[in-house]
Amino acid sequence: MHIKPDRSKGPAFETINQIGFLPVAGLSLPNGIEVSMITAGSQDVTKIDWMFPAGAVQAGKPLLASTVGNLLMEGTTSRTSQEISGMLDFYGAYLSTQTFYHNTVVTLICLTKELPDMLPLVEDIIKNPAFDKRETDIYINKRRQEYILDSEKVKTIAARRFPEVVFGANHPYGKTLKLSHFDELTRDELFEFHKNAYTPLGCRIIVSGQPGNEIGDLLVKYFGSSQWLPGTVNLNGVGEIEPLGQKVHLIEKEGALQSALRIGRPLFNNNHPDFIPLQIVNTILGGYFGSRLMTSVREEKGLTYGIGSNIVAYKNGGMWVIGSEVMGEMRQAAVGAIIDEMVRLTKEPVPENELEVVKNYMLGELMRNFDGPFSTSDIFRSLWEYDLDFTFYAKMVEEITKIDQQRIMQLSEKYLNPDDFYVVVAGK
């Protein structure tokens, strides 16, 4: 008998009280590399991340770390870039690199049955890049042209300038790429940085999905050898920030129709006790489509098509940044409207219904972020960099659930003082 559903009633509402984290197992390779395993999912597909201390901080100069990372797949001492691409296409595999401030991550996604063929390829790419002169020149020239084109965009100008203002021009988080860096980079630097950074020292491997029973032996075979010698890369190298004394920075762009805004301040990372509750304050202010900045600056005042606020965490610090683009003649009004919303959070309690919406939104996003082994492994990888584990997100659920109006006002008074914020405007 077919029962017709009652579509006049929505699904039952359930409050999220906890997240069911996938279990993480560990093993050590003979050369000391730690491997974390998140075994879950219904498909025989595997994702493996290799994390190396090969970021911009270790490189010490812009462009070097990302160039080494991106050129890994452009040829080895035994394979051309065409052969590498052809092999990936043949097996339907995905291989990429991402370079951050403190590490570069090499990621492989493939069918589990293809791991015996894919892991020797990844080993070759990681250990034996050729940094072929032709491939290197093509890459550098392409990056140079992209840099020149992006330099015409006001949002790029503001985005490049803001970290320099907040952290200082000599701080690793404040160093920005200049056009001159493209002419200064040498192939010898690429080889030297790779020799020291892409080694077992500081390497971490994270496996997720359904890797099969042979994964341990495969990792030992291709990445566990004691003959793969550790390098001498500096794992830290971050000093005190030196923000610029001037709080407002205007960068004129001839012919620009719009102005890009960046308003923010230096902050801490997610090891600080106020980091989690500040995420709730940030969400209210500008962290989702129904935020106060979107409602006020976009919907009510019509000053922009989009605006957002974000708290960015780094291994040795962080920043709070609000970003938008407005018509040139509206930039002063937009800055004023943003500051008004910051001040309002320090003066007026957040209505209970608004706070409830934000809480439910944040809890829903947390659940979505832990949907499946691959996304869970991405979160685990980020936590590992800060010496944290999944209890961080268990605490986040608790903080979101219990935070009240008074606590939000206290945090806002402490961290949303307009005098602590820097303003960068690029454009008309």
TrEMBL record:
<dbReference type="InterPro" id="IPR011249">
    <property type="entry name" value="Metalloenz_LuxS/M16"/>
</dbReference>
<feature type="domain" description="Peptidase M16 C-terminal">
    <location>
        <begin position="185"/>
        <end position="360"/>
    </location>
</feature>
<dbReference type="InterPro" id="IPR011765">
    <property type="entry name" value="Pept_M16_N"/>
</dbReference>
<feature type="domain" description="Peptidase M16 N-terminal">
    <location>
        <begin position="69"/>
        <end position="146"/>
    </location>
</feature>
<dbReference type="Pfam" id="PF05193">
    <property type="entry name" value="Peptidase_M16_C"/>
</dbReference>
<dbReference type="Pfam" id="PF00675">
    <property type="entry name" value="Peptidase_M16"/>
</dbReference>
<dbReference type="InterPro" id="IPR007863">
    <property type="entry name" value="Peptidase_M16_C"/>
</dbReference>
<dbReference type="InterPro" id="IPR050361">
    <property type="entry name" value="MPP/UQCRC_Complex"/>
</dbReference>
<dbReference type="GO" id="GO:0046872">
    <property type="term" value="F:metal ion binding"/>
</dbReference>
<protein>
    <submittedName>
        <fullName>Predicted Zn-dependent peptidase</fullName>
    </submittedName>
</protein>
